[in-house]
Amino acid sequence: MLTDAKLTGLLAEHCRRMNTGDVDYMLELYSRDVRFEDPVGARPMIGHDELRGHFTRAAESETYDIPGVPVAAGDGRHAMLPVTVQMNYLPLGPALVAHGFLDAPRNPRRTLLTLNVVGLIRANDEGLIEACWIYWGRTDVGLLDATAGMALRAAR
């Protein structure tokens, strides 16, 4: 059983490492047989090999996580964190347009995707994330001018 501080620290560390773009560094937080759903309801990614591909695409999109306030469950295993995610519209944005999540921007190269998500993790006794569920839907996706997005990042 982990302390609340350890659980919420895992979530904060996930965001910090995501912002570095270092995929191997990210994977160090996860058990080898991790189960990861992003978004919940999508086909789960199982293990480091599948998760590596997901994190590589996130790094290529220059994903930047802005964490909210984490909450730990009393069971010593689960914690949640709201996150505002910003990433370059390209290369992933056109897939969201194709699925009807948003309209194509006028200038894709100067546009960021924003997602308001909530991440739920389950940690193992070694303090690694063994399962992660990322909740978001159509109303949580938006577009932002890249200049405005960079200003928000700088203000943090």
UniProtKB/TrEMBL annotation:
It comes from Dactylosporangium salmoneum. InterPro entries: NTF2-like_dom_sf, SnoaL-like. Transmembrane segments: none annotated. This is SnoaL-like domain-containing protein. Residues 13-104 form the SnoaL-like domain. It comes from the Bacteria.
